[in-house]
Amino acid sequence: MSRIDITLTVNGEPRELKVEPRDQLADVLRGPLMLTGTHVGCEHGVCGACTIEIDGAPARSCIAHAGSCDGATIRTIEGFGDDEIMRALREAFTREHALQCGYCTPGMLVVGRDVVRRLPDADEARVREEMSGNLCRCTGYRGIVRAIVSVIVARRHARREGACR
Amino acid sequence: MNAGATGFGVGAALRRKEDARFLIGKGRYVGDITRPGMLEVAFLRSPVAHARLKRLTKPAGHEQQVFTIDDLPEIKTIRANSALPGFRVSEQPVLARGKIRHVGEAIAACIAGSRAEAEDLAGACELDYEMLPAVSDMTRAHLPGTPLLHEDWSMNAFLETHRNDDVSGLDAIAAAKVTRTLRTSRQCMAPLEGRGVLAEWDPRLEQIIVTTSTQMPHVTKSGLADCLGLDEGQVRIISPDVGGGFGYKGILLPEELVLAQLAIRLGRPVRWLEDRFEQLTAGANCREHHYVITAWADEAGRLLGVECDAIVDAGAYSSYPFGACLEAAQVGSILPGPYALPLLRCHTMSACTNKPPILPYRGVARTGVCYAMETTLDALARQLGISAEAIRLANLVRPEAMPYRNLVGKVFDSGDYPEALRRAVAAIDVPSIRARQAKGEAVGFGLATFCEQGAHGTSVYHAWGIPFVPGFEQAFVRLSPDGILEVRVGVHSHGQGMETSLAQVAHTILGVHPDKVRIVLGDTALTPYSTGTWGSRAAVMAGGAVAEACRQLGDRIASIGAGLLQVTRPDVVVADGFVRRIEGEGSVSIADVARTWYRAPQNLPKGVDKGGLEVTAGYRPDPDTGTHSYAAHAVVARVDLETGAVVLEDFVVVEDGGKLINPMIVDGQVLGGLAQGIGTALYEEMPYDGAGQPLAATLADYLLPGSADVPDVRLEHMETPSPWTTFGQKGIGESGAIGPPAAIVNAINDALASIGAEVTDLPATPERVLAAIAAARAGKA
Ligand code: FES
Ligand code: FES
Predict the structure, then answer these.
(1) Which of A67, A138, B141, B343 could covalently link to B351 via disulfide, CB atoms 3.0 to 4.6 Å apart?
(2) A128 contacts on B by Cβ (under 8 Å)
(3) Taking the CA of residue B439 as centre, how many other CA atoms within 13 Å lie in the half-sphere pointing to its CB?
(4) Residues of A in contact with B710 (CB under 8 A)
């Protein structure tokens, strides 16, 4: 099978890769790039465990052909070290016991961060809806939902205070 | 004991230590681990349920990369026997030999540099087989004339059990009698991480090292050594981070044996990672029950007796170690539930069918049995015209009767079962539901009460005679030269947070800060033998063992500390990380004691225990018949009469798990189990057609509950200590998954009561709800 040359920016670093036509982005990240924080739970686009950011938007890396991602900017769970929302979410996840086995957690955090950014006024019901594409078999979701809602609420308060000043 | 005194010990809702690595994507699961020169394995699996295997033609030029059972004659068949009288034991070849007994059964292992190439090889194999009629209906499997799965058996059943109390006089004296036929569907436990195995041969140690996603590394080690003809010293099992278990990973896998033998044969590391298609089609292996149940009650609702005929679909083989009849054979002993039942007549059958071998899923038989008993109780209450609460209060074992031995010999340790029920009911505005019903709204209120036996040990399991019997649980503790406390246990943590809760236990005994306690688990080379994590046993058994080991270590620390303080052992206590004089000033830190033992032994007092600062200690509660946690679930459900859809408006759980080591973690266990129970109640089902084909091959067909399907559950605790355990803790890991189907269907049936419709089969999908409504309307017309 002929290999395809692609260039990606992964967590801020340019990477040149040769991939098989049938390689999915998840395979490339977890294999040659050794970024195993991106988990695969179903490999058919349902569970959300493999969610990463492609060009700033959440995407399922198990059904994104690597060969078609040439030039894309990728961010995985390993690439959010300096991100303020992610820091708040991580703190909230551990406080609210939003993880048990940890397998769904990277995908939850990536999508949760997107929800926090996109929907500054979301309430619990909306967060439940928005997170419904990410399966967790361990927690029953209450901690996950509470964690995300708590970050949204804290940011709302911070915004208000900022506006009052 | 200074439990919880410092906010870090037993009773504290301490944040989890393990979260740090998971939150940054640094958990390490089997699929994250690679080895130089590693090869990947894909299994060729059976496309049919029942067939005679005639020939497998390997792809030309790749014969050396495809292994059948004939290529691996060293591996013995898996045999999971039972001492229960009449048990028929199956011989499970690790790769199909001569016959295929279920869709997804592994036939050949294909090896290549990448998984995709290995799958190509599997796809290029040619299979020649002769189809046999499939046995897919458990209620007919045993009938004469049905083709036999195991041809030397007399019928397709692993086991039948009987309990024959005489219920013949009850018709004459009962005020109410109901009979129901109920069914639960086959499920897939579906942990988010599938199974995975990486096997490598270490020529220096002459040891096969198997890194595998398992709940029970030591049991797997024994089973693997047995089947491969190795001595146990030649086997090391490593269970790294595991992405959920729930029983799915409480098994010795055929794949583990194949991979181990391949690694030995090839001298190269080999890895297999189960994908979701494999899991759904070859691993739907639990919860399929069928009941015909009759119950009699007097006019106050007091149960006079129960008669039950139960069949559990146990699939094609008896899995190691739990065997094929753990579910069916327990139906009779679980049916009385938390109630004082005077008479029970019960027949059970573990049917052998062309489906994947059964494994005990969280709650084991209890989810189905609780469903049968609780829906039957509600039917009785409706017939008697009394409330669901009243009929339960009339039968629940009363607190003053504890400890209580019920008619099948189970001993309930402690608790106030009626109080849990009263609190659950009080948390819901029942009058407003009745008012809505009066206005014609299809809304209902449902209850379920149950108890969960956990951490039961030798006295219970020896009678089963399965490949292992849990005995004393052990823990190893070591105070290292820098004052770090290392704790090694043979159980495994795959979401239960034991790296935190066991550190809390150690802290409670020794006062060492949990940050300075390192819990080591998941490696047979590093940890004492244990039967592993299953049966809600870890908090009681490993918790007790860690406490005992810390206590003994504390005694040695105290002796050395007393010497350093120039007083005697009785003059000091160990508290908050120090050895302190009871009277007067003076203390020495545990870290200083450690430094003295390792680095300044010249200062040790005379007569010091030569065992030093390392202790292995064992623990078993006395009696070890198990703790009984219990709960009441109360549900408000709304039914859409047009579409059959069910919405859970409210869900209340009142739960008693005894003393909670970490209440936050316990809540997590209950809530996680609850979501799984909601899946059982409303969504999850692996249908099989008449040819034994599984019909849900993706997560778009097999529906797991998502965040929008699970309500914001309200959870209340009672904390009645168990009199038999170290801190009064009880096993509670499965409880959440037991009650929801019963409580939810009772709420649905309450909502449909005015129509006279009743749902009987799980899950209560829109189709089933509509069918129940249609049947009731047709019956009335
Ligand atoms: S692994 Fe990509 S969605 Fe499940
Ligand atoms: S924490 Fe295990 S799947 Fe979510």
Answers:
(1) B141
(2) 707-708
(3) 7
(4) 140-142
pLDDT in tens, B204-225: 999 999 999 999 999 999 999 9
Pick the CATH number of B358-445+627-780 from 3.40.50.2000, 3.40.50.450, 2.60.120.460, 3.30.365.10: 3.30.365.10
Range of the domain at A106: 81-164
Q: Dump pLDDT digits (tens) for B392-428.
A: 999 999 999 999 999 999 999 999 999 999 999 999 9
Q: Using the predicted structure, report yes or no on whether residue B1 has a pLDDT greater than 90.
A: no
Residue among A77, A131, A132 whose CB faces B25 most closely = A77
Q: Under an 8 A CB cutoff, do B191 and A134 touch?
A: no
Is the CB of residue A138 less than 8 Å from the CB of residue A101?
yes
Angstroms from A17 CA to nearest CA on chain B: 17
Closest residue in B to A107 (Cα) is B25
Q: Which residue has the tokens 């005697």?
A: B568
Strand ranges in B506-613 using DSSP code E only, listed in sequence order: 517-520, 572-575, 578-581, 587-589
Question: Which ligand sits closest to the CA of A137?
Answer: 2
- In A20-56, the DSSP E strands lie at 51-54
Fold of B3-27+472-619: Aldehyde Oxidoreductase; domain 4 (3.30.365)
Q: Domains in chain A: how many in total?
A: 2
A157 and A87 in a common domain: yes
- Cα separation, A142 vs B556, in Å, equals 44
CB B91 within 8 A of CB B474: no
Quote the pLDDT of residue B416.
98
A 6-65 residues inside an 8 A Cβ radius of B: 20, 22, 30, 35-44, 46-47, 49
Q: Which of A79, A111, A136 is the last residue of a domain?
A: A79
**3-class secondary-structure state, position B560:** helix
| CATH number of the domain where residue A151 is located | 1.10.150.120
CA separation (Å) from B335 to A140, B305, B330, B372, B733?
27, 11, 8, 8, 20
The 10 Å Cβ neighbour count of residue B486 is: 17
Structure token pair of residue B155? 């019928």
> Which atom of ligand 2 has the smallest separation from the CA of B193?
3
pLDDT digits (tens, 9 = 90+) for B340-367: 999 999 999 999 999 999 999 999 999 9
Instruction: Centre a 10 Å sphere on the Cβ of residue B568 and count the other Cβ atoms it contains.
Output: 11
Cβ atoms of B325 and B350 within 8 Å: the answer is yes
**CA-based nearest residue to B223, from B540, B545, B524, B617:** B524
Q: Is any ligand 1 atom within 6 A of the Cβ of residue A29?
A: no
Q: Does B116 touch chain A (CB under 8 A)?
A: yes
C-beta separation of B48 from B100 below 8 A: yes
Measuring from atom 4 of ligand 2, which residue has the nearest CA? A136
Report the CATH superfamily, name and number, of domain B33-132+195-242+249-281.
Aldehyde oxidase/xanthine dehydrogenase, a/b hammerhead (3.90.1170.50)
Which of A60, A65, A108, A137 is the pocket-test mutation for ligand 1 (most atoms within 8 Å of CB)? A60
- Our measurement of the distance from residue B583's CA atom to the centroid of its chain's CA atoms, rounded to an integer in Å, reads 49
| Domain residue extents for chain B | 3-27+472-619, 33-132+195-242+249-281, 358-445+627-780
Q: Rounded to the nearest whole angstrom, what is the distance from the C-alpha of residue B495 to the centroid of ligand 2?
A: 8
Q: Inter-chain contact A101–B495, Cβ cutoff 8 Å?
A: yes
When pLDDT is cut at 50, 70 and 90, the band that residue B5 belongs to is: very low
At residue B757, the 3 state secondary structure works out as coil
- Closest by CA to B389, choosing from B332, B346, B434, is B434
Which tokens is B456 given? Answer: 């039961």
Closest partner residue to A46 (CB to CB) among B191, B497, B700 is: B700
Residues of B in contact with A134 (CB under 8 A): 706-707
Number of A:B CB contacts under 8 A? 167
